Amino acid sequence: xxxxxxxxxxxxxxxxxxxxxxxxxxxxxxxxxxxxxxxxxxxxxxxxxxxxxxxxxxxxxxxxxxxxxxxxxxxxxxxxxxxxxxxxxxxxxxxxxxxxxxxxxxxxxxxxxxxxxxxxxxxxxxxxxxxxxxxxxxxxxxxxxxxxxxxxxxxxxxxxxxxxxxxxxxxxxxxxxxxxxxxxxxxxxxxxxxxxxxxxxxxxxxxxxxxxxxxxxxxxxxxxxxxxxxxxxxxxxxxxxxxxxxxxxxxxxxxxxxxxxxxxxxxxxxxxxxxxxxxxxxxxxxxxxxxxx
Length: 293
Prior knowledge:
Strand order of the largest sheet: 2-3-1-4
Strand content: 15-25%
Shape: globular
Number of helices: 11
Structural class: alpha+beta
Distance between the termini: 39 Å
Order of helices and strands: HHHHHEHEEHEHEHEEHEH
């Protein structure tokens, strides 16, 4: 809708996220667009993390559980007020719908603190030597570590993926500067959906796999969806990585690694397109290269 209003005509998206499924459409309705073009003053865009934070806020304040599309309005209202510095005003958000399930609630609980900037996901490269783990913990200092993943992969250096509870941006930056000053390169991965949805669950050793193509698929939640996928690619190509994350009726986020020779890429893309599942190739993602190579 934001793009359609900007261009003055309905725009068709290549793909949409399924988390807020009540508003996840590739093309807005003709009549809806006409009404919005005439009556809407502007559109506020918010992230999936912000939606999760609003769901948590509503539950903690009113003990009501919103579906993501309903919480989208609340997250947008909060972003609007923050941007314009509004205080003491009456602001109305239509939080319609109660289409929530436990699969989606699991995602909400993991991302809500990130959406409120109360948790950050980071990666630090540290030397693989005695005392380095203790040094790392000392540099974290007063920050609370909420998640930590590490596995020895070489005799030279290790990549640690971890989460910390944060209260201010300055506090997080101060910790990162402490790491950098001690020659421990540190990356803030909080904004990466690939890390939050998949890579954080796959830490445990790095490996270079020949001709590996990394893709993010959205599987429909119906019997036979996985078998249809396997029939499309197997046994011609070897599956080198697979992480499935169900989200209920809206589909499952799936990260797949497939070994495809360069001269077979065109055939692979044709088969992937004919499968009919939304997908995107993420082989060159910087965070994947950092954590798994």
